[in-house]
């Protein structure tokens, strides 16, 4: 039972102030404020490393009504700096609920503010662009809050990837106890959840989501997760059949060590590469594209992407994007555009087994329009291995 509510303040760096409430009175935090338009998925968002260091506005009027469960985490830690909501449900009801969002916020000391007009706040962000802000349940003087904002380091000046990537490599596959909600769901629906392909997939961890690993496990792949700053030789040491570049937070152009390594892989090997979100941006930079910071980012579950032939509704979460330019390598094909602003949402190498997308095909919750991309990645690996085996047999 929630006993106490405390007055809290949100201040933006343009001087606008909002008054609300919190469930604790012991926090003051500042960071980049962004918004997510999804109707569900607050648990996944709070544990998604792509949101590392950000304060999230939930635009849906009420969050928390289905609680928190033990299966929907995207990482083992809370990644957001704080959350902003209109209403937080005090009494959730769902068969998978283990703890209410209210108690989860308190137990994990997650800074938060609710009871404010998130529609007005979001329109402010859309008009002015993402900005630094501060929320506090113990400081109320404008000058003190402004000082907090001034001392906040901008996202584009930090290497957020090194903050969230794994410290050391680890391996994981189905038979060593990695259980996912999706495999459980497939058992309920009587569908085949995996195929014992045993392909060796190296995930370069820029902030990998659990659901990405889940999809590869469903195909019976042996997954090796390695740090973002792994060297070219260390990656090849794992003898990968395919390499997946994961999602992650921050400015991709700062991750120059990974861009350099991916260039080496592209130039010196024929290993299939699949990039998701940050991974898409790293591959694009390695292929000569440029990235830039979006005015207010793409964060939600209903972003249309596609081309003249196809369109998909996708889940997206990024503040930077690949710039669409007139002149790029002739062996690169732009496969998808974001149909809201025509930034590059997908590309394919015509001569190398490389493709990437700016959205999340593993989306959960979210649309499953693009889940076929994991199957495409597996099929690409199969084709490369068959071609390699054919060449060896005929060379003999």
Topology, please?
Elements: E1 6-12, E2 17-22, E3 28-36, H1 42-46, E4 54-58, E5 62-63, E6 82-85, E7 87-88, H2 101-107, E8 112-114, H3 118-128, E9 131-136, H4 142-150, H5 161-164, E10 170-172, H6 181-188, E11 200-205, H7 210-218, E12 222-227, H8 232-237, E13 242-245, H9 256-268, E14 273-276, H10 278-286, E15 291-306, E16 311-322, E17 332-338, E18 344-349, E19 354-357, H11 372-395
Helix pairs in contact: 9-10
What would your notes on this structure say?
The structure is a single chain. The protein has 396 residues and is an alpha/beta fold. It is 27% helix and 28% strand. α9 (256-268) packs across α10. The longest helix has 24 residues, at 372-395. The protein is globular. Keywords: Amino-acid biosynthesis, Arginine biosynthesis, ATP-binding, Glutamine amidotransferase, Ligase, Nucleotide-binding, Plastid, Pyrimidine biosynthesis. InterPro entries: Anth_synth/Amidotransfase, CarbamoylP_synth_ssu, CarbamoylP_synth_ssu_N, CarbP_synth_ssu_N_sf, Class_I_gatase-like, CPSase_GATase1, GATASE. L-glutamine binds at residues 50, 248, 250, 278, 281, 317, 319-320. The active site is at residues 277, 360, 362.
């Amino acid at each position: 039972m929630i006993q106490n509510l405390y007055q809290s303040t949100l201040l933006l760096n343009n001087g606008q102030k909002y008054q609300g409430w919190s469930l604790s009175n012991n926090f003051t935090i500042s960071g980049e404020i962004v918004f997510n338009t999804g109707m569900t998925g607050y648990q996944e968002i709070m544990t998604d490393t792509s949101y590392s260091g950000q304060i999230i506005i939930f635009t849906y009027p009420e969050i928390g009504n289905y609680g928190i469960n033990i299966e929907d985490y995207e990482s083992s830690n809370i990644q957001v700096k704080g959350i902003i909501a209109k209403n937080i449900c005090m009494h959730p009801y769902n068969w998978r609920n283990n703890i209410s969002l209210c108690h989860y916020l308190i137990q994990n000391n997650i800074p938060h503010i609710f009871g404010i007009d998130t529609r007005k706040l979001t329109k402010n962000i859309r008009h002015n662009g993402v900005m630094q802000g501060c929320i506090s349940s113990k400081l109320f003087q404008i000058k003190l809050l402004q000082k907090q904002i001034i001392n906040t380091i901008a996202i584009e000046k930090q290497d957020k990837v090194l903050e969230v990537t794994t410290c050391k490599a680890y391996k994981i596959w189905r038979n060593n106890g990695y259980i996912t909600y999706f495999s459980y769901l497939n058992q309920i629906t009587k569908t085949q959840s995996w195929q014992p392909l045993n392909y060796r997939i190296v995930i370069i961890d820029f902030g990998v989501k659990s659901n990405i690993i889940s999809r590869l496990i469903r195909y019976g792949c042996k997954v090796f997760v390695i740090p973002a700053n792994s060297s070219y030789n260390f990656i090849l040491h794992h003898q990968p059949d395919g390499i997946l570049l994961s999602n992650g937070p921050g400015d991709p152009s700062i991750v120059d060590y990974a861009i350099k390594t991916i260039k080496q892989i592209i130039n010196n090997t024929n290993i299939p590469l699949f990039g998701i979100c940050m991974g898409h941006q790293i591959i694009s930079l390695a292929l000569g594209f440029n990235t830039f910071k979006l005015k207010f980012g793409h964060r939600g579950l209903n972003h249309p992407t596609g081309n003249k032939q196809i369109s998909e509704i996708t889940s997206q979460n990024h503040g930077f994007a690949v710039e669409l330019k007139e002149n790029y390598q002739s062996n690169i094909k732009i496969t998808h555009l974001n149909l809201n602003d025509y930034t590059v949402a997908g590309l394919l190498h015509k001569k190398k087994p490389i493709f990437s997308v700016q959205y999340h095909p593993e989306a959960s919750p979210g649309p499953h329009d693009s889940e076929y991309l994991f199957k495409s990645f597996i099929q690409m690996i199969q084709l490369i291995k068959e071609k390699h085996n054919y060449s060896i047999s005929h060379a003999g």
